[in-house]
Specification:
Blueprint lengths: L2 H8 L5 E8 L11 E8 L2 H13 L4 E3 L6 E3 L4 E8 L6 E4 L4 E5 L4 H10 L2 E2 L11 H7 L12 E8 L3 E6 L5 E2 L2 E2 L6 E8 L1 E2 L2 H18 L19 H6 L7 E2 L2 E3 L7 E3 L5 H19 L8 E3 L2
The structure holds flavin-adenine dinucleotide.
Flavin-adenine dinucleotide binds next to strand 3, helix 4 and strand 13.
Length: about 300
């Protein structure tokens, strides 16, 4: 694999910023992570397609990063190329009559949720307060444990590396609690979401109530990735960890939050190794005490 060759081929040749050794701590909500050997901030579809084809030809592994709000990047960093989507991927149009929103993968989820509310379109309330981009939200099928964004997808455009663009209708994809049937190598480019006309004030009130609840139960003042583990059926991962008396447990700068045990927060200077130690400790304690094998929601990068 030749990161250097890829860097030389892409630098100045495509509509993108091409960076070497960019620290992932600057690009993740955890504020943790060593350097990415290569980073491409693609400003257009064409630049993205070209970057992926050069990286493939140079055998450089790559990954798409949204706002990095569900990613724990290793202290050693990532030896491949991290690709971010900007500019052309940040376009959004709302058709109030048709009750649809069409948005690029780089659009901030908060903007999408708020603009839909302002247009009197309901259906995205479950995503209020979730950081990240539309691409990240669709890839994770973000939402609550009972409602998720995938249910709103009318159609979805992806880039299939080596093949080109492909359009799915929403019901061709299986959507579930923090999972989808989308192949891991497909890059989400844009989506059209089908929403429902509703009273703007009622949508806003619902969003406010959900935000208040978040602020009551989640440690939102410290860096984190949100919930570390998926909730097992009919159980709460946070409660299971709490029952193991792990609330407040620390490792280096990381801590199992006292407010919400499914959050591991960075209290300052936490390393990825600190977080992984706590993930392991919580996982093993829940397995031993409750016989439940928790699975991680957070995506590990560079491990
Ligand atoms: C305080 C806090 C609260 C949170 N609360 C919630 C919550 O209530 N519900 C919830 O579901 N999540 C929650 N999260 C987690 C996170 O915000 C979501 O998973 C979010 O959707 C991730 O979006 P992102 O753009 O940051 O994606 P990233 O974290 O950058 O990436 C996540 C995954 O998506 C992939 N990806 C990103 N963009 C694309 C693309 N265009 N094409 C293909 N793959 C892509 C990445 O490769 C990675 O595997 C929370 C996080 C924090 C920090």
């Amino acid at each position: 694999m030749s990161v250097f060759n890829a860097y030389m081929s892409l630098s100045g040749a495509i509509d993108a910023e091409v960076l070497r050794d960019e620290r992932l701590s600057r690009r993740t909500s955890y504020r943790i992570g060593g350097p990415a050997a290569l980073m491409v901030v693609a400003h257009s579809y064409e630049a993205l397609a070209k970057a992926v084809s050069v990286l493939t030809a140079e055998h450089v592994e790559w990954v798409i990063l949204g706002k990095g709000s569900n990613v724990l990047a290793s202290d050693e960093g990532y030896r491949g190329c991290v690709i971010l989507l900007d500019d052309e991927f940040s376009r959004m149009t709302i058709d109030a009559e048709d009750a649809t929103v069409t948005a690029g993968a780089g659009v901030a989820l908060s903007r999408l949720v708020n603009d839909a509310m302002k247009a009197g379109l309901s259906g995205l309330e479950c995503c209020v307060g979730i950081p990240g981009t539309l691409g990240g939200a669709l890839s994770m099928d973000a939402g609550t444990r009972r409602e998720w964004i995938g249910r709103r997808v009318r159609d979805l455009v992806v880039l299939r590396p080596g093949e080109g663009m492909h359009r799915y209708s929403g019901d061709e994809v299986e959507w579930g609690y923090r999972c989808t049937s989308l192949p891991g190598n497909e890059i989400i480019l844009e989506a059209t979401l089908a929403l429902m006309p509703a009273e703007r004030a009622a949508i806003a009130a619902d969003m406010d109530a959900r935000l208040r609840r978040r602020r009551q139960v989640q440690p939102l003042t410290l860096p984190s990735c949100g919930s570390v583990f998926r909730n097992p059926p009919e159980r709460s991962a946070g409660m299971l960890i709490q029952a193991c008396d792990l609330a407040g447990t620390t490792c280096g700068g990381a801590q199992i939050s006292e407010e919400h045990c499914n959050f591991i927060v960075n209290r300052g200077g936490a390393t990825a190794a600190d977080v992984v130690t706590l993930i392991q400790r919580a996982h093993d304690a829940v397995l031993e005490r409750h016989g439940i094998d928790l699975s991680c929601e957070v995506k590990l990068l560079g491990f």
